[in-house]
Amino acid sequence: MAGKDLRINTGIRVREVRLIDDQGEQVGIVATDKAMAMAKEVGLDLVEVAPQAKPPVCKLLDYGKFKFDQEKLNKESRKKSKNKKDKEIRMAPTIDSHDLAFKTKHIRDFLEDGFKVKVTIRFRGREMAHIDRGRMVLNKVLELLEDGYTLEKEPRLEGRFMSMFLKPSTKKGN
Fold first, then answer.
1. Could you give the 3-state DSSP secondary structure of residue 82?
2. In terms of Cα–Cα distance, which of 89, 119, 109 is closest to 168?
3. Dihedral, 124, 130, 131, 132 alpha carbons, nearest 10
4. Fold that domain 9-80 belongs to in CATH
5. Phi-psi region at 41: left, alpha or beta (left = phi > 0; alpha = psi -120 to 50)
């Protein structure tokens, strides 16, 4: 029951509809004019809830309230769904030990919050001759993290970037 494609009252242009009253009871197949009259009598709207059915299914309800409830449900579902974006931390192969510890703390925080983390080493210019330094930095990150993570993707060189993916460990009951 999407909100935008529902037709209401005079927007319903078929000869007859399968009607459901305001209590949720099925009335049966009724002429659209009669269904519209029933809706006016009760002070509600005639809303087409299943246009693909033969004949289309219509329901007597307060459309404004229905729309408000739908929006509320959508808002709740968006609130409950976790933002599943990955986080990325970038470093250079010549990173200082203090900077490395600082960035590793950020990685740990992201993992504790339930995010996947992509740790990337960017090689510039002549640094490409020392790819082993990049691998050493990534291994040092793993060493500093201790536990609380699962290595999802081993360190791999892709062009000028070497990256690995970490995800939160499932031991904590996440």
1. coil
2. 109
3. -150
4. Ubiquitin-like (UB roll) (3.10.20)
5. alpha
Per-residue pLDDT, averaged over 121-143, amounts to 92
> If you search the block for the tokens 């729309």, which residue do you land on?
67
Q: Write the class of the CATH domain 87-172.
A: alpha beta
**What is the pLDDT averaged over residues 147-151?**
85
| R_g (Cα) of the chain, nearest Å | 29
Of 161, 73, 80, nearest to 120 by C-alpha is: 161
Q: Is residue 151 within 8 Å of 168, Cβ to Cβ?
A: no
CB atoms within 10 A of CB 153: 12
pTM of the entire predicted model: 0.52
- According to CATH, where is 3.10.20.80 located in the chain? 9-80
